[in-house]
């Protein structure tokens, strides 16, 4: 089995749609409303949906936080994790000209694997495959944060080679959950 990162594409769109039809979304294992919204967006315009998944220039209106504060949109790219079909995704966020992130962004990357493909090392492989991309962006490290009770995400970060940095409160924007910060050096 070969696991690789790919740009979201029409060939994998049917297996992505199949995941959504199971009410899975990248942000929630059971989100019928969110899955329906994504499906509707795909049905309206599949090409536009695929294009919308990455914004490497950080273009667009500012992002409005829960407290009403408007903050600059960060550049980002989303990649699908594939083993021949859609298996999940990983996204990379960064700030131009620095490896630092603004306080409102808790990590450079976020990842999710569909439940039926978990425990096979897909997330840690995806993290490692993201390193050359981060290197091309002149990033020196990748911050990876997760809820403290997310054991699977912790294991994926550690298996990819990330080092534990600290435990912290994620703040009101993220539900005041206890979180962990890991850091992976980009060489």
UniProtKB/TrEMBL annotation:
Entry annotated with the keyword Amino-acid biosynthesis: no
MF annotations from Gene Ontology: acyltransferase activity, transferring groups other than amino-acyl groups
UniProt keywords, alphabetically: Transferase
Every N-acetyltransferase domain range: 80-162
UniProt-listed Pfam families: Acetyltransf_3
Record-linked InterPro entries: Acyl_CoA_acyltransferase, GNAT_dom
Alphabetized PANTHER family for the sequence: ACETYLTRANSFERASE
The protein's name in its UniProt record: GNAT family N-acetyltransferase
């Amino acid at each position: 089995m070969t696991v690789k990162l790919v740009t979201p594409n029409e060939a994998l769109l049917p297996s992505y749609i199949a995941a959504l039809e199971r009410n899975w979304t990248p942000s929630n294992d059971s989100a019928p409303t969110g899955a329906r919204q994504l499906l509707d967006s795909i049905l309206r315009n599949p090409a536009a949906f695929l294009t919308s998944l990455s914004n490497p220039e950080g273009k667009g209106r500012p992002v409005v936080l829960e407290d009403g504060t408007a903050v600059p949109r960060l550049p980002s790219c989303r990649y699908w994790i594939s083993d021949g079909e859609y298996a999940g995704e990983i996204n990379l966020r960064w700030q131009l000209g620095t490896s630092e992130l603004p306080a409102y962004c808790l990590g450079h990357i976020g990842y999710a694997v569909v439940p039926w493909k978990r425990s096979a090392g897909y997330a840690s492989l995806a993290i490692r495959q993201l390193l050359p991309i981060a290197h091309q962006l002149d990033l020196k490290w990748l911050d990876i944060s997760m809820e403290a009770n997310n054991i699977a995400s912790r294991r994926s970060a550690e298996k990819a080679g990330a080092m534990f940095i600290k435990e912290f409160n994620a703040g009101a924007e993220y539900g005041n959950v206890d979180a962990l910060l890991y850091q992976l050096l980009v060489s």
